[in-house]
């Protein structure tokens, strides 16, 4: 209830309540948005926009029943809106995290494995990617994901199962091609 209490305080004019929410959620929210957009600067700008929307809703007196799913719903919608803009409809090309320089020897296997997994996740459609990030990186429960994305719990379960199945196929294909942690 602490998050909802902070929203209540915000609606009463206590602006420091927003500071508590930012302190509590900036890092996980940034992580979620970054994983969807794959751009540090854009993710930081988007997180600021999300907290501005939370602030504006709080000032209007809106207090969500469950803050966390509501916050991630705002984040998901902001990311969807970004991708819908005409200027972002071009094919997204990821920057290589590691170039063929002397730095490759300093990267440990765990980082390479993590990058391989994130790259594989990013090959999934937005529908599968968003539920998997919310479940496994943000640790939301099925019911919270359902609230966040305006889906039924059964649809969330189905998307997670299908997303994991597609991810498994991507990882197996990468393994056959010799892509991944063995690069």
From TrEMBL:
Matching entries from InterPro entries are given as: RNA_pol_sigma-70-like, RNA_pol_sigma-70_dom, RNA_pol_sigma70_r2, RNA_pol_sigma70_r4_t2, RNA_pol_sigma_r2, RNA_pol_sigma_r3/r4-like, WH-like_DNA-bd_sf
Positions of the RNA polymerase sigma factor 70 region 4 type domain: 118-167
Question: Domain RNA polymerase sigma-70 region: where?
Answer: 22-87
Which keywords label this protein? Answer: DNA-binding, Sigma factor, Transcription, Transcription regulation
Entry's Pfam families?
Sigma70_r2 (PF04542), Sigma70_r4_2 (PF08281)
Stated family: Belongs to the sigma-70 factor family. ECF subfamily.
* Cited NCBIfam families: sigma70-ECF (TIGR02937)
Q: What is this protein called?
A: RNA polymerase sigma-70 factor (ECF subfamily)
Organism source for this protein?
Paenibacillus eucommiae
Q: What is the lineage of its organism?
A: Bacteria, Bacillati, Bacillota, Bacilli, Bacillales
């Amino acid at each position: 209830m602490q998050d909802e209490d902070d929203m209540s305080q915000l609606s009463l004019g206590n602006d420091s309540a927003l500071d508590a929410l930012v302190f509590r959620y900036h890092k996980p929210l940034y992580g979620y948005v970054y994983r969807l957009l794959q751009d540090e600067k854009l993710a930081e700008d988007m997180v600021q926009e999300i907290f501005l929307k939370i602030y504006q809703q709080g000032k209007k007196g809106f207090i969500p029943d469950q803050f966390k799913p509501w916050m991630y719903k705002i984040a998901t919608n902001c990311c969807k809106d970004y991708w819908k803009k005409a200027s972002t409809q071009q094919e997204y090309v990821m920057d290589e995290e590691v170039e063929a320089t002397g730095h490759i020897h300093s990267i440990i296997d765990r980082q390479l494995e993590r990058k391989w997994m994130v790259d594989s996740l990013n090959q999934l459609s937005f529908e599968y990617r968003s539920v998997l990030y919310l479940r496994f990186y943000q640790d939301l429960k099925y019911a919270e994901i359902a609230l966040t994305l305006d889906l039924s719990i059964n649809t969330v379960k189905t998307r997670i199962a299908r997303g994991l199945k597609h991810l498994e196929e991507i990882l197996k294909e990468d393994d056959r091609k010799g892509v991944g942690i063995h690069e």
